[in-house]
Design goal:
This is Glyco_hydro_3. The protein is of the alpha/beta class. It is about 40% helix and about 10% strand. The protein is built from five helices and six strands; from the N terminus they run H-E-E-E-H-E-H-E-H-H-E. The longest helix has 18 residues, at about 50-70.
């Protein structure tokens, strides 16, 4: 692994830089990620398109990283999902402060499981949720 490839694994990019409409811009992806890329962040907000389109886009992008980069390291899709999956059709829950006010651990656990299921269903493997905060 070259120094450039190691550094690329530490970097991320926004989906808006590689997706135009509902299509992956492969040429742009080749320029941005010629040495690979660690993550694509805020992936669920790709124009708020439906889940099926997001799955197709994520599959096409992963195929590029696996087949078109020298090392074939898949990219991590990340999203901020503090109150649920923020893409079209996602479930949005009350904020963490509201949830904490219920003192219901079972409810908090169910919420986290639903968020996990929804983001996994579109290929997102890293989310910033839920938050443990001592406010």
């Amino acid at each position: 692994m070259t120094l450039e490839e190691k550094l690329a694994q530490l970097c991320g990019n926004l989906p808006f830089n590689i997706i135009r409409g509902n299509k992956v811009n492969i040429q742009e992806l080749k320029e941005i990620a010629k040495d690979g890329l660690g993550r694509i962040t805020q992936f669920s907000l790709v124009g708020l398109i439906n889940k099926t389109d997001i799955v197709h886009l994520s599959n096409e992008i992963q195929k590029f990283f696996i087949e078109e980069t020298r090392l074939g390291i898949p990219v991590v899709f990340q999203s901020e999902s503090l109150v649920g999956y923020p893409g079209k059709g996602g479930t949005i829950f009350p904020s963490m402060m509201n949830l904490a006010a219920t003192w219901n651990e079972t409810l908090a656990n169910k919420m986290a499981l639903i968020i996990g299921q929804e983001v996994k269903s579109v290929g997102i493997s890293s989310v910033m949720s839920p938050v443990l905060d001592v406010s």
